[in-house]
Amino acid sequence: MKYAAITLLALAACIPCPAAEEPASDRYARSVVGLEVTYQTWDEDRPWSKTTPKSRNGSAVLLDGSYLLTDAQMVDHATLIQVATFGRSRPVEPVIVAVDPEINLALLRITDPDALEGLQPIGLADSTPITGTLHMARWRGQQLEMAASRITRFEVRRGWGGGVEHAFLYMRTDMAGGGWGEPVFDNGALVGVTVSQSDMLSRAVPVELLKRFLARATAEGPYIGFPALGVMWQTNSDPAVSAFLGQEGEPRGILIRQVPWGTSACGVLKPRDILLELDGQSLDAEGYYHHPRFGRLRFGQHLAENHDLGDVVQVRVLRDHKELELDMTLRGYPSALDLIPYYRPGQPSYLVAGGLVIRELDAPYLRTWGQEWDKNAPIGLLHYFSLFREGQTRDSRRKVILMMVLPSPYNAGYQYSRDDVIESINGLPVDSVADAAAAFEEPLDGFHVIRLSPGVSRR
What we know:
The chain has 459 residues and is an alpha+beta fold. It is built from nine helices and 27 strands. It has a seven-stranded antiparallel beta sheet with strand order 5-4-1-2-3-7-6, covered by helices on one side. The chain has a six-stranded antiparallel beta barrel with strand order 8-9-10-13-12-11. The N terminus is likely disordered.
């Protein structure tokens, strides 16, 4: 019996132990990199000059093909981009492949093979989970910081730099100060990239849209963006209004208020149409349809997830008490199609004439009034932004303002004029700085006559 026991113990010692599972931190450390960006914005109060250079730090994730995926805000106005691997800065400057401010994503590429040493690309998940806990990751110093992020909901919102509406993944996270391109993982695969965070609630672009962005960004030819309907609409919740427009029974569909020039709906939909169906998707009175995975979502997600620019989709509307089926060619909705753009990629359009500084009104200028600019900016300018931001028409492309006056004997008496909307110059309507410059070439009887809209600085 003694010898048998010894034999059994020896056999047990020869059985191999199962391999220990690789820690998640080690698995993601080879795929997550830091970005150190130096950027320089234009001085909105002095549009002929730039502000002092600043820096920002964020994250990116390595994908096949030496690509780095991050959010567009990370590289906005960038003058220098450097990659930090394993928590350490390295003199590696990736090239920008594509930037889409409308969906807030950017794709970079590392062209130096030596810079990829020790790194490993990660794959994309098939789909975004609808419940459960995910993991966000970033380098903080020389340590990989990971945080559990619990899925709370999916919600369709307008993107940062344009009019494309799509679904965002909302998560309750343990990571403070996030929202700068941190990758979000589930079981070793990428499911999202963060684009903003408020307190501990993080917002990410889900993998369904990441795939479409990557396909467009890596295709031959120039990058093309995402489609959008491009209308101003309201819920169809008042039975009296729907009945007046010819709808019987419970209100359904959304009520079109305005169709901005140049959008997908331009020339197809009209104000006071009730949009009942979009590409076969029935819309309820609040603009929701049934997404096969995420449940009730606003209709913008259907176009962003399933269609490309140039696709022709069918819409069903109620117009003049009749239901019509119409074909609509999908276009993008960049911020440039707004009467008052929320995002502007380059230098402000401005003109200095006789000491009068004239420029086009946009949100970057309004933000010079600080964190609460939507309360502190001049009420006259906020009026236009709040009510007519998306109201661009063929004859009204921009709001042009007299921003300030550079005092000189030539304009004595006008030096206190500021932030007034210009209606016409020398009798000619102006809706761009180019129009203003052309109007100054045609003075009236030797004088320049500038007509201003009523505002808080004039009586």
